Structure formats: structure tokens, C-alpha cells
Amino acid sequence: xxxxxxxxxxxxxxxxxxxxxxxxxxxxxxxxxxxxxxxxxxxxxxxxxxxxxxxxxxxxxxxxxxxxxxxxxxxxxxxxxxxxxxxxxxxxxxxxxxxxxxxxxxxxxxxxxxxxxxxxxxxxxxxxxxxxxxxxxxxxxxxxxxxxxxxxxxxxxxxxxxxxxxxxxxxxxxxxxxxxxxxxxxxxxxxxxxxxxxxxxxxxxxxxxxxxxxxxxxxxxxxxxxxxxxxxxxxxxxxxxxxxxxxxxxxxxxxxxxxxxxxxxxxxxxxxxxxxxxxxxxxxxxxxxxxxxxxxxxxxxxxxxxxxxxxxxxxxxxxxxxxxxxxxxxxxxxxxxxxxxxxxxxxxxxxxxxxxxxxxxxxxxxxxxxxxxxxxxxxxxxxxxxxxxxxxxxxxxxxxxxxxxxxxxxxxxxxxxxxxxxxxxxxxxxxxxxxxxxxxxxxxxxxxxxxxxxxxxxxxxxxxxxxxxxxxxxxxxxxxxxxxxxxxxxxxxxxxxxxxxxxxxxxxxxxxxxxxxxxxxxxxxxxxxxxxxxxxx
Length: 537
Description:
Layout: H1 5-20, H2 26-43, H3 51-88, H4 92-106, H5 113-120, H6 123-133, H7 135-140, H8 150-165, H9 169-177, H10 180-185, H11 188-191, H12 209-230, H13 235-246, H14 249-256, H15 263-286, H16 293-304, H17 307-313, H18 318-321, H19 325-355, H20 370-399, H21 419-464, H22 484-499, H23 509-514, H24 524-535
Helix pairs in contact: 1-2, 1-3, 2-4, 3-4, 3-6, 4-8, 8-12, 12-15, 13-15, 15-19, 16-19, 19-21, 20-21, 20-22, 21-24
């Protein structure tokens, strides 16, 4: 298959010419911005997801991407000026479209030329200032029966653009110079307390006030996380975030997780736990206040390590209850995926804290039991084994897709689509599923490795690193309740959970872990299982 490169170039040139034409109206340019975003989406390399076809067309895709980049760069400052002006002024709907188009274009800014144009022209500073300027309008969208939600979508588009800019070091540094962290934490959105919105009621066609608040807050959290990821060793960024978050009621409110469990609340937890995981290296050295969040993080692990309990409390809104079962299934699957992210973040956080010789699990009332950690291992192992089984089935289908009878192929527009098109769609779907499963597999393997390591370090501390009189050489504040009889009880309980045959399995968790195929050499899990066996004899 050959891409119609010449025709595609003509389409792109027509769009760019129309945007730059004198006398064009905001409506005309807004429509062309939408066309430009669709063009860039459809011609990007990620749009070709079938592995076989991607291999055949790779050189064409690279060539088309290079041509697209050169054509966009040729538009130069005039294109960016037009876009930036529309993104700064006018009706919210067209501001949102212009901001979204700038967001997409910044992914083509290979040499940071467009980034520095936005900074030097003052547009970047204006986009940041606009976050504060529109605060009153944003707070109005949280009131019962708001007149319009358009400003909310403009705000989201603005933050999405800023997150894109923060995605690499030069952009993050420019945002830091513009005091973005202080401005975000001092904003009315971050100062708002989510529980204040729980009692408001609106018609079913308007999202609940708490949901609208999450829609405003989550882009803020993503922008803050982008800053940390882009500048991982920058103490100024870490210090500012830790200090501001420690003084913010919002973060305590989210981590307490005292309100109803919804997909939005789980998204908030996923973002906040991800932030503290990424900042854990700085926690002890930069802010003593931030360590107060540790207890909340550990209690979340205890709460969400048993799916049957939290799933029973999952709140599905009334509007969702009236739709098909497939929607409810997707809703629950989304919640389960978010909980796995939360557990991954907390386990990663605990790994970093444990490396610093801090005991955070055990028999003390200051932290959850080691059995919580064992439960995380068991639940994650079961999920991991199911993923391996699903991957085997998907790979088998992929290798035999050409042999599948026509009637068994996924049908899309079944009456008008040719058989080879249906087969192509099946290939795309299978490859997408395999990619997603492999990503989930990496995540579950990460949790298993780190949870096993944390368990080994704690057991080694409690059962191995002790003097003759039974006192600990490490962090005695956690050992006040750990008498010899209590230590023996911990050992027996952990061993019982790890050696007991798992539900629906013919082997114990330790045996199943030993037989896992290693993701890397040497096999770290095999090593950890051996260490645990020797400690628990």
C-alpha cells in the first residue's frame, strides 16, 4: 500500500494557506484549526497500528512526517502569531480550539523554536496569567445549574498546552521562571475543598459539581507532575511542590479518601499518589511536613489491596445505571485500572522510603501490617498470571488471523466493508490489545518485584538484623510492640499466606513466583523468593 503523499501535502498546504489568509473570520479559522488537528492525527505514525502494515509503510510515514514538519515550520511566526492571538482573545469555543491546535503543533517543535517564540512574544506569560484571570468564571461553573461550561473547556485546553510545554526540560524551565508552581497552588481551584461540593444537585444532563471540580483539578495535577518528570533532579521544583502541598487542605482531603468512591475520586488518588511517588527521593531532605502524607498513602494500600471490599463501595451515578451492562462493565474496568495505578504508585513510594532504612510495615500501630504487603503480592500475582494467559490467547489469534473464517472477523459497517478491510481492523484491534496487555504486564511485574523486595527487607529487619538480646539496630519506634511472641506470630502468618494454595490455583504464591518467566537477567524475583524462604524457615 502506498500513501498518497502528494495529495496529502496539497491538503495540508490548503489548510495552512486558509489560516493565514487576510480577512478570515474566527469561525473560518476555527474550522481550519480543527481540520489541521485531524490531519496531523490521521497522518501521524501512531495512526498506523497494524504491525505488518507499519513495517511496510514505515519509510513512507517517516518521509511524510518530515514533509509535514517542514511545511509547518515554513508557516513560521505568522502561523503561530495567528494561532496565539486566537488562543488569547475571542469566544471561549474558538479559544479552546486554538489552544488545542497549539498543543498538537508543539509536538512538532523539534528545535524549541516555537516554544521560544511563545515565550519571547509574551503569549506564554499571557496563557499562564489567564489561569488567574478566569478564576471567577471557573468558580461559577461549580455552582448549581451553571449558565455555561465553555470556560471550563478553555481552561482544560490551556492546561493541556502548558503540560505539553512542561513535557521537556526547556519548557519546564520557562514555566518555572514564570512561577507556574506558585500560581497553580495559590489558585482558587486548588484552594477549593472537594467535600464542599458533594451536596449540590443538578439535572442529570449536567455533570455533578464534584465531577466538574475534578475536571478542573486533574489537568492542574498533570501539569505539576509533568514539571517533576521533566526536571527530576531539580530541588527547587521538588521543594516548592512539597512545601505548598503540605500546607494545602486539598491534598489531605484527597488522600484521606473519606468520601464516596467514584472513578473521579480514584483518578484524583492516582494523580496525587503518582506525584508523591515521584517526589519521594526529596521528601526527607526538603520537607518534614511532607512526611505526614506517608500514613495516608499506607492506609490507601490497606484499603485498596482487596478488590471485593472497595468494589462493593464503588459509586456508579444514577445516569450510568440506566444504560447497557457494557457501559457498567467498562466503568468498573476503568476503576480497577486506576486502583492498580494507585497501588503501583504507593509500592514505588514505599520502595524509595524503605531504601532509606525506614521501617513502614510491621506490628506497630504506626503502619499497616506486613500482611497487607502479602495481600498486595497475592492479588497482583493473580492478575499477572491472568494477563499472561490473555496474552497467549491474543498472540494465538494474531498468528491465525489470516486463517479465520470471514464470519468470525470483527464487523464494522459490516454491509459496506470489504473482507480485507475487516481483516485489517481485526489486526489493528489485536495489536492494540496486545500492546495494552504488555503494558499492564510491565506494571504488575514492577509491583511484584518491589513488593517482594520491601517484604524481604522488613522481614530481614524483624527476624534477621537483631542483637542477642532481641533489640533492633534500626528505627526502634516501630518495634515497641514486637515481642518475641509477636515476631513469631508475624513469621507464621506471612509464611501461611505465602505457602497456602491460592484460590483457583494448584500451587502456592511462592511456588508460582518461582516459576514466573523473568523479565530481565538476573531473575530478581527468583532471588527474592529464595531470600524469603530462608528467612521464614
